[in-house]
Amino acid sequence: MAKFKLRLNKGIKILFILLFLFNISEISAQLIIEGLHFADGKPVQVSVRDGKIEKIKRIKKLSDENNNLIIAPGFFDNQVNGFAGVSFSFGTSNLTKEGIQKATRELWKKGVTTYLPTLTTNSHDLLVENFKILAESVDAKNLLGSIPGFHLEGPYINPEDGYRGAHPKQFVKLPNWDEFIEMYKASGEKIVQVTIAPEMEGVQKFIKKCAELGIVIAVGHHNAGKEQLDLAVQNGAKISTHLGNGCANMINRHRNPLWPQLANNDLMISIICDGFHLLPEEIQVFYNVKGPDKTIITSDVTSYAALEPGEYKTQTGETIELTPEGMLRYPAQNVLYGSASPITKGVGHIMKVTGCSLSDAVQMASTNPANLYGLKDRGIMEPGKRADLILFTLEDFNVKIAKTYVKGELVYDISK
Ligand SMILES: [Zn+2]
To answer: Are 153 and 165 contacting, i.e. CB atoms less than 8 angstroms apart?
Structure first.
């Protein structure tokens, strides 16, 4: 009997030790992040466990009052052609697993925690090849789920100068479903958005088929009239790609592609808010018409972002220019060649030109894109969501990222 009691005591002791150790590991797995809530500027404590937000608690003041950083969900950019010397669209030389990781890490530094690598008009073989490389790379653990899918912009767009933008004419074509499916399969069925021109032959049928696969159809680089545009929306088109750009310089004042897109209440818009692509009054009008629920801030950022100003030769031989102010031009056609600013700049810029709140700007840079692609695990700062969190200052409409967490992991800290 005495022996049994002794054993029992020993057993209880071991049990307590195990419980104690279990608790220690539990505590260490929890992360507390403090900041000023982006929606109202009041201090909050966000508990993170296993990569997700566990709890958000209002507190009287921040533990470190000198560290007055705003906390918000990470930004989501649906149009990233490349970044920091890595291109998703042109050539394959720098599109490697390491290249994708480099671009992702550099975007994290800008507060972009989710993005869609965007492949623009190019040869079919090259698009298939690049989709394959991307598909094989995006599930890498160290990307922390930052790339949920891809955006194909073109090649089924309007071939006319101006509408085509900087997309190479020789590869612009009418839709071909078999070819598209080849790209879709190469992408691991991860093409989540296709940008097309609704007025081109066969495109309406193409939209319907994409909608059946759950792919978001965007209209862009097009000259669609009202009927074609409304039909595209009926068939499943959901958003305009960079409204106000990918459009000819000279258009009819009545019959042009802008009015139907603004008039259709079922169509969202994405706009490039880098300070170069649209005039302040254009952004104001677009925002006044669509509002924060139907607007997405996008970047159209290219591999030339974060490089030194100067002239560069593209893989297809065109000369482009990155000005010291950060404008990326294609002088041969006097059009812009995508952007050099991540959406981080757009968040401040849209507040400046429209007078919208930070809360609205975050909705347009984080929540709306996540909702559009049905990604329910991100885009909002609330319990149960991925702990994709950014801490930043906002001075004179400039968002400056101080810390970025992706899936609860600190991936960028300005002080280190
Ligand atoms: Zn474009």
So the answer is: no
